[in-house]
Structure of YitT family protein:
Amino acid sequence: MSSVNNSTISNEQNKTPHSLIEDLLAIVTGTLVVSFGIMLLRHAGAITGGTAGIGFLMLYISDIPFGVWFFTLNLPFYYLSIKQMGWAFTLKTFLAVALVSVFAEIHPYFIHLEPLNPFYATVIGGMLMGLGMLVLFRHKASLGGLNILALYLQEHKGIRAGTFQMCVDCSIIIASFFIVSIPILLASILGAFLLNLIIAMNHRPFRYLA
């Protein structure tokens, strides 16, 4: 046990922080990947979990763009972020949320998609979102909302972010039963599962030292 603790302390002490430029480039990269996944899901009329999932639900029942919903729904969570995760994490998360909100709305101006198989769109979209979120997590940022709570629980309670997010996301998707068709709902569950599987497999304390 002692050797494990000593190794953990040594890993913590040997961490090399990312530079500001590295953080900014990672946030831009991560949000571009996430927002592209969001575009695929929206094109298929699918749903995902977390704050983005709520944004999709609101988009489908209103005329307000997804980006506006996503940015607005995240606002109440920044207080928790400041109190529990600090200003640096909160500012980077705010930037990430703002960029996803913008990128999700401008992608269609540059990419025109033909009709997509919903299972293909949700699988690829979910995996892209998971990869983009992983980039953000590793640079001490998130996409706000439930991501903030998930990261807090992992850092302070030892509950894996991916495991917690998976449970919450499945609940949100099931709640969309009356809004999307059964095939789209099933495809959405698969996409959300793959998103969180990527995070659960790759985002663990002390595995990534930077």
